Amino acid sequence: MARQDPAVLALLPLFKDTSAQGLTRLLTAVGALGSDGLPALRRAARGSKARARRRVDALLALGDADPGGPPDDEVRELLGVRDDLRDGLVQSMQTRPRFIPELRAIARDADDPEWAWAVDALGELGDRDGVEILMAHTAGQDTPFVLLDALRKIKDPIAALVFEPNLTHPEARTRVYALWGLAALGHETPIAGLVALLEDPEVHTATSYDPGESRRAAQALCDVLGWPFEWAPEAVEATRARVRARFSETYLAACAEALARGQFDLPPDHPARA
Questions:
Q1: How many whole angstroms separate alpha carbon 91 and alpha carbon 93?
Q2: Is 226 exposed, middle or buried (0-12, 13-18, 19+ CB in 10 A)?
Q3: How far, in Å, CA of 34 to CA of 255, rounded?
């Protein structure tokens, strides 16, 4: 009979508790094994998808506490294997800038199964040094939405090249994000486009419901102008009130006219500024 592995036997029961406290106990046990901790964790995770996912949780937690060490090396090894485990792993990278190089590598390949998640994570991480990788996948109005959203978050001026053609996108949501991206870059006339979308109505029919884009436009305005925002129906009216207090109708009309002509800013001496 094969000799049982005492280190694995010590860890296996700890995989069953999926709570935060359970993870802490698993990490403590791994640490107690010293140099055999990570190898034992690997051995214990074999043969079970649930244990393999818990191993990932442990590796990420260890790396968060002490970045750049062996746990991060093992995470990078896992990122190099296209399997079911990698999907959740890439999704967890939104708050871990130490893995930006690996995310960029995934984002270069639009055929990678985790491409969209890598793009999303780079956007969340504000990776301006990786913008060229993202811009290489843009295609005017055929640009995948996840790219538009990531570039909106990163706020690099080069992204105006993809925001501009999407101002006339047939989908209202995409138009909101194009306006949002331009406004986030500091351009003023897109504000008027977002203000207009505060009136985008909800549409109810006997068989469908379209929530409209008013709440998303409110979120965009609050983000750009530094106003508080919560995803709730009352946020739209609260944003309308702030708009009325901040901008004159004359100014917004001038911005709307300029935006329709493809101008993203009013001249410094425009009379609407008075």
A1: 6
A2: exposed
A3: 64
Distances in Å between the Cα of 98 and the Cα atoms of 31, 50, 72, 224, 252 are 22, 25, 9, 28, 43
Here the tokens at position 6 are 């005492």
Task: Indicate the residue type of 234.
Answer: E
Please report the pLDDT score of residue 273 as a whole number: 80
Q: Phi and psi of 81, rounded to 5°?
A: -110, 120
Task: Measure the CA–CA gap between 67 and 238, rounded to whole angstroms.
Answer: 42
Residue 251 sits at the vertex; the CA angle it makes with 248 and 255, to the nearest 5 degrees, is: 140
Mean pLDDT value of segment 205-228 = 83
Task: Provide the whole-model pTM.
Answer: 0.90
Tens of pLDDT, residues 204-216: 555 544 557 999 9
What are the tokens at 242? 């702030």
